[in-house]
Amino acid sequence: MIKRLGYDKYFDDLILWNPLTSEYKTLSKTNSHRECYMKSPYNVSKMYYTSSEDDYKILYVAKSCNVYTYSLKSDSWRKIESTENDHPSLWNYHHPMQSALWDENVYFLNTMWGQQYWVTKFDTKTEKFTKVSNISSQIQTGVDIWSSVHVQKQCLHFCVSNMYDGRIELFRMNEDKQWTKLETCLSKRDGPNMAGYVDPLHFMRNGNWLVHYPKGFCLYIVDVNRYINEDHEFEPPDNGMHISAVEKYIETLVSPNRYHASNFC
Fold first, then answer.
1. For this UniProt entry, which segments traverse the membrane (predicted)?
2. In 3D, which of 123, 130, 71 has the Cα closest to residue 102?
3. Residue 189 and residue 162: Cα distance in Å, rounded?
4. Domains in the chain: how many in total?
5. Does 99 share its domain with 72?
C-alpha cells in the first residue's frame, strides 16, 4: 500500500507499506519531481506488478496531468512522455480521480464537472493511455454527485450516487466496452432527509454496497435487492472525521525491501 507522511506544510514523503508484515520503505526521490510529493487530493497513485521485468511499479498522475512511474527494483522515478491530447483524458474536474487495476492495466474514471464521464486505460506494458469508453449518456448527470470505479467478478463496475435524492446507480462495462446498467436504488435517507451524498466505498462479493454517509457520520450497507440499508453509526472523534476511499490490496509476504536487503527496518 502507498501511504503519505507529511514532512512540511506542502509536501509528503511517500511510504510503501506491507500491512501483513508491517515492513515499509520510504521511496527514494531519485529523478523525481517536486509535484510527486506535493499535497493534493487530485494526485493519483496506483501500484502494479510487471512480470516481464519482475518489478513492482507505481503509476503516479499529478494534478498537472504529468505522469511518472516509480520502480521498486531501481528505487527511482521516471517521467512518462505523453502528448497534450492525453491530458483531457486524465484530469478530473470537481472530484479526485478514481482508479482500478484490472488485467495488468490501470483504469481511470474521469469526470468533467459531473457532466461527462469516461474511462481511460493505462497499458502497463506499453505505458500508453487510451480513452476506452464514455458513459455520460446513461447517467442523470449533475455537479453534486459522487462516483467510484471497482473491479468485481472480473468486470469493471462504475457507481454513481446523487447528493439530492440518494439514488445509487451501478453500471458494468462489457467486453465490447459498452456499459450495462445493473441497478438503481434509493437509500432510506432519500428525499429531504438525505442532506448530502453517499460515498461508495466497496462493492461487496454478494452484490451489495458498503457506503459512507459523511453528513450523518455513519457507514451502511446498501442491499440492492431489497433497497434497504443496514446502518453502522459512529461518533466522529475530535468533532470531525474523514473517511477516504477504501484501499484494497492482496495480502503478500513480499517485502518492500526485496531488492535492497540492506534497507530492512
1. none
2. 123
3. 12
4. 2
5. no
